[in-house]
């Protein structure tokens, strides 16, 4: 019989992706784990209450539905808490962090359309009383916010899917928009969760499952499974590593970074001269600042990045972390 600690680890570690898309997914998880379905549901609910699980459900690929951007503000330190609180009130803002830099407030803004995104950015800019750095993603090299809780050496390369050009967001019909809205909240922790979603949006369970499977196959859903909160799992140090790479080299360098273990996110964003000269971004998470610093030093040496100007922006305060809101 699996004990509660081992069960929690398996729930958190093993099912961040490849979640069973079937009418009774928690029964399927229980079968794989050798426990009763009630223990799986109770375990996930307890982990959610503890803050270790944000939700069970979909991570949508950036800009495949709706619109999104990274943005930053240079806020006087004495005003930072108040400005961060005001920014958090926008439902379009789903991540908001203080980072070590003159641009000290960094947040992600997501909306159902480009028009709504720009309206939210304009309102935030007006509230802050200063221009935003607007840094939409231009090219994805690697995005995977899963966390292997067993750890890894950080010194080996991994395979990543071939680089794909960004494509225009997919238009959704009304039923699909309702499904996206329902999925934003995560799966209900019930025996037949997809049936519950189907009743909420006015269709049958089979149609919900078919649409989710299709979105996964098309890459609109990046990952479907247990969405963990890295800070609560001990990954309390994270840094945004940025480089200034010549445009003719950035794809090759980005793909090398994307293959490096320890890199959770890697993408190209525009420079905003003269304020922001960097075009290649990646995120490194760890359990201690020294670990992240060592990982970055190793990456830069091993991948031959020493000739590129760079900065390391450690996060200091997490003001907001939630799922993206597309509807």
UniProtKB/TrEMBL annotation:
Q: Which reaction does it catalyse?
A: siroheme + 2 H(+) = 12,18-didecarboxysiroheme + 2 CO2
Q: Which residues form the signal peptide?
A: none
* Pathway listed: Porphyrin-containing compound metabolism
GO terms, molecular function: lyase activity
What Enzyme Commission number(s) apply to this enzyme? 4.1.1.111
Kindly indicate whether the keyword Secreted belongs to this entry. Answer: no
Keywords from the UniProt entry? Lyase
SMART domains per record:
HTH_ASNC (SM00344)
Instruction: List residues of the Siroheme decarboxylase NirL-like HTH domain.
Output: 10-51, 176-221
**What domain of life does the native source organism fall in?**
Bacteria
Q: Where does the Siroheme decarboxylase AsnC-like ligand binding domain lie?
A: 67-141, 233-320
Matching InterPro entries, A to Z?
Answer: AsnC_trans_reg2, HTH-Siroheme_Decarb, NirdL-like_HTH, Tscrpt_reg_AsnC-like, WH-like_DNA-bd_sf
Does the UniProt entry include the keyword Lyase? yes
Please report which protein family the annotation says this sequence is part of: Belongs to the Ahb/Nir family.
UniProt name for this protein: siroheme decarboxylase
Species annotation:
Candidatus Accumulibacter adjunctus
């Amino acid at each position: 019989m699996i004990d509660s600690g081992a069960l929690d680890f398996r729930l958190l570690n093993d099912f961040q992706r490849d979640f069973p898309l079937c009418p009774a997914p928690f029964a399927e998880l229980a079968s794989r784990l050798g426990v009763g379905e009630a223990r799986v549901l109770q375990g996930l609910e307890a982990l959610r209450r503890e803050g270790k699980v944000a939700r069970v459900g979909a991570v949508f690929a950036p800009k495949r539905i709706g619109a999104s951007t990274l943005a930053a503000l240079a806020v006087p330190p004495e005003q930072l808490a108040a400005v961060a609180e005001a920014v958090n009130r926008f439902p379009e803002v789903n991540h908001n962090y203080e980072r070590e830099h003159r641009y000290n407030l960094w947040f992600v803004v997501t909306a159902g359309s480009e028009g709504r995104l720009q309206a939210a950015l304009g309102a935030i800019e007006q509230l802050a009383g200063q221009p935003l750095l607007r840094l939409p993603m231009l090219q994805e090299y690697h995005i995977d916010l899963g966390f292997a809780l067993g750890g890894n050496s950080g010194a080996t390369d991994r395979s990543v899917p071939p680089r794909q050009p960004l494509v225009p967001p997919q238009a959704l019909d009304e039923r699909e928009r309702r499904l996206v809205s329902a999925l934003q909240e995560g799966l209900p922790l019930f025996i037949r969760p997809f049936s519950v979603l189907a009743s909420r949006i006015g269709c049958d369970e089979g149609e919900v499952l078919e649409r989710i499977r299709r979105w996964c196959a098309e890459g609109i859903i990046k990952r479907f499974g247990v969405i963990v909160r890295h800070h609560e799992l001990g990954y309390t140090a994270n840094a945004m590593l940025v480089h200034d790479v010549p445009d003719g080299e950035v794809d090759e360098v980005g793909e090398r970074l994307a293959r490096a273990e320890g890199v959770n996110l890697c993408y190209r964003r525009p420079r905003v001269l003269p304020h922001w000269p960097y075009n290649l971004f990646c995120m490194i998470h760890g359990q201690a600042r020294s670990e992240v610093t060592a990982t970055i030093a190793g990456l830069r040496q091993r991948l031959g990045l020493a000739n590129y100007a760079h900065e390391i922006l450690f996060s200091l305060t997490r003001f907001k972390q939630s799922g993206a809101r597309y509807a």
